[in-house]
Amino acid sequence: MQQAEQAVKVLITDKVAREGIALLQEQLPTAQIDERRGLSKEQLQAIIGDYHALIVRSETQVTADILTEGKNLRIVGRAGVGVDNIDTEAATRLGIIVVNSPTGNIIAAAEHSIAMLMSLARHIPAANASTKAGKWEKSRFLGVEVRNKVLGVIGLGKVGMAVARRAQGLEMQIVAYDPFVSPEHAQKSGIEMLDLDELLRRSDFVTIHTSLTSGPSGTRGLIAERELSLMKPTARLINCARGGIVNEEDLLKALNENRLAGAALDVFSQEPIRDNDVLKQLVAHERVIATPHLGASTEEAQVSVAVDVAEQVVSVLKGGFPRAAVNAPMILPETMKVLQPYMTLLEKMGSLYTQLQPGPLTKIELIYNGEIASYDLRPLQAALIKGLLEPISEVHVNQINAQVIAKEWGLEIIEQKSTTPAEFANQVTLRVLNANGYTSSFAGKPGSGDEHVETLSGTVMHDEPRIVRVGRYWTDFAPEGRILFCRNLDQPGMIGRVGMVLGKAAVNIRHMDVGPSQRKQQVKGTHDTALMVISVDNDIPEWALHEIGETGDIFGVTVVHL
Ligand SMILES: NC(=O)c1ccc[n+]([C@@H]2O[C@H](COP(=O)([O-])OP(=O)(O)OC[C@H]3O[C@@H](n4cnc5c(N)ncnc54)[C@H](O)[C@@H]3O)[C@@H](O)[C@H]2O)c1
Ligand SMILES: O=C(O)[C@H](O)COP(=O)(O)O
């Protein structure tokens, strides 16, 4: 925590409320917080490498190039809802967490949509401009009432529902189209669900509240020539969601051909509008009301989204979890508290495995026993992948990119969960499988080279991880620091032999554990082997490791760093 506070640098490239910045300054007192608005792509690319966090609204385009240059970047915070200006796929690949404020500006967006609706019905903006110009055009601005009119809501999510409720207060009849909302759910709110064509045919006003998504079933171009042709010539269209959901060229044509009474637009496919003729003509059209993406621009919403995102940036920079990650599993804080020691355990087990048993990783079985099995265990899998891969590669694994990286390595993890306890109340077992099933176990002849640690088990005691099984040996040690592993014939004098060499090398022993073999039947006249696990305070010199290996009846001397 201390380290994060000392070195941290946060960059804010769009207008974000002071309250959010004040929160960052208060919670990260030693951090450098820079506000740099109006940066070009090249300028941002040149400086992003210095920063650990980036906070934006919808103006800054956070492209894959910028994220790739963000070598120290751990989080991108979007002070708002829409993340279509952030390449979240690239962020995920690079292990950068993306957070937003999913609820901070819903009311602001809904109220703006209602303001657009009333402005369209009563020609407020044009009447205002005319009156200010000294004219008195009473008959030119004859409006319509919204009472008893049909409002068609496309996308009945958070904003759509808030708009519907407000419009019900205006005594409008609400119909909606949303393939992901059940008619029963809508009915409870007095809303009739229709298919899109029917909604367009019946509505006097249509308001759009879906996200902008691409692909064959995406919302890009959802309202184009065909859909506009289904609308009444007296109908009016409102888009306060995202530019691109409505085909702007087709909309301009419908307005010019008097096939639509009017449109109110807060969002555009190019923002700000610079060199797009269609958009220029649309904005200038006398039956179009245009605002410069003002849906979320209320004092209340801006404070709310800025504080929401600042809190999440602080949490991530201090090593915690955000509450609204766009590209990470959402885990409740209470669950996180239970999982935290198991995350440490899984990371250590993964690291222990790859250090004890280097080799290709293809398939791993992860078995949970006990009450722990009833939790959402996604963070544990990510911790295991981190532990397995970080000792053997340059890759930086975290909760965000773990699954992507595992896939790149061809590593498959299969989970088994049972709330029935195994040897310990809560136990996690790692079994590494090869294409033919389990690899051979610690069954080969000692020192023959064909011995494999195919199984590791661990548990958590008093919030501390313990390794309770390595291969076919029972153990009990904390997976922490430098640990010497060796197998020895299970006969008197073995501990003394190793202890002598370590003493000679001035290596202090912190903890020692001799794990007996699980094998039940002893071959007559032979000794089974045991596993010696010795935690030490300082590095063991090469000559000492060599000497331990040469003492006889001791095999497979390995040091791991956990
Ligand atoms: N103008 C602004 O300043 C402003 C402010 C806030 C939100 N927004 C935008 O408003 C939109 C809605 O935000 P929200 O928070 O309500 O999102 P949300 O995710 O809660 O709701 C979106 C809804 O759209 C539905 N949907 C998805 N695909 C659909 C499709 N093909 N057809 C019909 N419905 C579909 C979903 O099922 C969901 O119910 C987003 O685009 C958001 O970016 C704009
Ligand atoms: O997605 C959002 O939150 C809104 O579109 C608001 O965007 P803005 O923060 O750029 O005003």
From TrEMBL:
The keyword Ion transport does not apply. Residues 483-562 form the ACT domain. One of its GO terms (molecular function) is NAD binding. GO terms for biological process: L-serine biosynthetic process. It is an enzyme of class 1 (oxidoreductase). Keywords: Amino-acid biosynthesis, NAD, Oxidoreductase, Serine biosynthesis. The keyword Oxidoreductase applies. Its EC number is 1.1.1.95. It catalyses: (R)-2-hydroxyglutarate + NAD(+) = 2-oxoglutarate + NADH + H(+); (2R)-3-phosphoglycerate + NAD(+) = 3-phosphooxypyruvate + NADH + H(+). Pathway: Amino-acid biosynthesis; L-serine biosynthesis; L-serine from 3-phospho-D-glycerate: step 1/3. Pfam families: 2-Hacid_dh, 2-Hacid_dh_C, ACT, PGDH_inter. NCBIfam families: PGDH. Belongs to the D-isomer specific 2-hydroxyacid dehydrogenase family. Catalyzes the reversible oxidation of 3-phospho-D-glycerate to 3-phosphonooxypyruvate, the first step of the phosphorylated L-serine biosynthesis pathway. Also catalyzes the reversible oxidation of 2-hydroxyglutarate to 2-oxoglutarate. This is D-3-phosphoglycerate dehydrogenase. The lineage of its organism: Bacteria, Bacillati, Chloroflexota, Ktedonobacteria, Ktedonobacterales.
